[in-house]
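pls ignore typos typing on phone
D-xylitol-5-phosphate + seq
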Amino acid sequence: MPLITYRDRDVLLVPSILAADFAQLGNEVRAADAAGADWFQADIMDGRFVPNISFGPLVVAALRPHTTRLLDCHLMILEPERYVDDFVKAGAGQITVHAEACLHLHSVVHQIKAYGIRAGVALTPATPLSAVEEIIDDLDLLLIMSVNPGFGGQHFIPHSLDKLRRARALLDAHGSQALLQVDGGIAADTIRDVVAAGATSLVAGSAVFGHKDGVEAAINSLRHALVDLA
Ligand code: DX5
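k done
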């Protein structure tokens, strides 16, 4: 169930499993699913595009039977085109690649779409929106990173709000139905601003899986932070 409907758009909550207890991943995903998660994001990291190594398609495949929610694979890897097939076979319902990691971004987006799943493009904080202007009509999702990719638990970069507003305007100018996703430092103290700026898909790791009272309390806290925006 969406966190909120704001300006006639459903706003989805996408817990990032990067912050979950990897020794209990299936249980964590089932608990967050039951507590109202809309999708789940798998943060894939290769230690080259980003300075961290996380996990690959085998973990996505292991999770697939534990939830019917869409598995959103955020590939923070170089040459992601090499692994699209593996993540589709693992059960990805969406694959998001970084504009900065692709020599031929239009080609990779259409490679993903050819599998009949959703295609997203992510931009790091320093990459301008112009990097996707020519392919905006091809996207199912645009991800604005509000931290530098590689690690959970970072602080939200404030200039991300202006970038979100401009991204919202760009998508609206094209009549795009793509989701506008934001990822990094999304918590009770930042969630209201990003929704007001036009985000429609919110990735949260620490704020969901790192909450002291568990995932249900965490998701209720995020929902409560939006109550006066409805
Ligand atoms: C960074 C990751 C994180 C993660 C969310 O590469 O993409 O942004 O998903 O982390 P939190 O919600 O803990 O900032």
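The beta strands are 4-6, 9-15, 39-45, 70-76, 94-98, 118-123, 141-145, 179-183, 201-204. The chain has one domain: 4-229. more later
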